Amino acid sequence: MIKDPPLLTIQRNFRRPSAKLVEAFRGVPTGHLVDAMGGRGCLDHTIQPLFPDNAELIGVAMTCHAGPADNLALFGALDAALPGDIMVAATDAFMKTAVTGDLLLGMAKNRGMVGFVTDGLVRDIPGLRGVGMPIFCAGVTANSPARNGPGTVGSAVMLGDVRIEAGDILVGDRDGVVVVPLARAEDVQMRLGAVREAEQALETKVCEGLEIPDFVRSILASDKVEELAAPKGARRSHR
Questions:
Q1: In whole angstroms, what is the distance from residue 95 CA to residue 119 CA?
Q2: 56: phi > 0 → left, psi -120 to 50 → alpha, else beta; which?
Q3: Pick from 79, 154, 72, 135: which is nearest to 110 by CA?
Q4: Tens digit of pLDDT for each residue in 98-126?
Q5: Helical (H) or strand (E) element with 49
Q6: CA–CA gap between residue 58 and residue 84 (Å, rounded)
Q7: What is the distance in angstroms between the CA of the first residue and the CA of the last residue of the chain?
Q8: Which region, left, alpha or beta, applies to residue 176 given φ > 0 means left and ψ of -120 to 50 means alpha?
């Protein structure tokens, strides 16, 4: 006979970033972070801010895997959380019930947690707005979950195709949530300076009237681009 799994498996002790390292990412646009990580790192486009006017998210991932139609793991994450943590609830993208509502996230705020991210659904919109916490989710339903488990807390989870480890740094804004792996965080921080400079330089040129960047013009003028002959009777385009 196969032994039933425990209702919860909790890992409380994991490597955490310093408060200084977390603060280094505060206010950084998610687009800059993605550029500093080679073009990837943002969660799936379905995970969006519930309240776009309250989408500034920065903190440490406290992961939990709740599974479909259950949220016992979220209560385990409450117990294991430290101030400054963001609850990350993986549900295997279950779309039939909410994984949480305003009361549980009100408790999370009381614990000092600073945000909530899930690939599932939430409920209790008026109450959630009152909680005042940045919330990123895949949608809303009034259907409620059970609290039966099994679930995990503090282990790696997958939200879409992005792996999140407990202790990773999460940064969110209206464009979505970016996961900065703790193992890469210092390197990403160092790369941000060059990303900012390049972005600002190009923005200045655009404001001054730039139409096509030089690096694109060089590609267009190279032998890597093939110009097709105009169809008979077609009007010549203006360039």
A1: 9
A2: beta
A3: 79
A4: 999 999 999 999 999 999 999 999 999 99
A5: strand 48-49
A6: 8
A7: 75
A8: left
The 10s digit of each residue's pLDDT in 37-75 is 999 999 999 999 999 999 999 999 999 999 899 999 999
Q: Are 22 and 60 spatial neighbours (Cβ–Cβ below 8 Å)?
A: yes
Pairing of strands 169-173, 162-164: unpaired
Enter the DSSP assignment of 22: H
**Which amino acid makes up residue 195?**
V
Give the Cα separation of 17 and 24 in Å (integer): 11
- In angstroms, the Cα distances linking 102 to 57, 74, 108, 143 are 18, 13, 10, 14
Going from the C-alpha of 13 to that of each of 81, 87, 133, 142, the distances in angstroms are 11, 16, 25, 34
Domain 8-193, CATH among 3.40.50.150, 3.30.230.10, 3.50.30.40, 3.20.20.70: 3.50.30.40
Rounded to whole angstroms, the Cα distance separating 167 from 134 reads 18
Q: At what angle do helices 72-80 and 102-110 cross, to 10 degrees?
A: 10
Question: What is d(CA 169, CA 83) in angstroms, rounded to the nearest whole number?
Answer: 14
The closest of 160, 153, 93, 99 to 124, measured between CA atoms, is 99
Nearest by Cα to 108 from 95, 92, 127: 127
Total-model pTM: 0.91
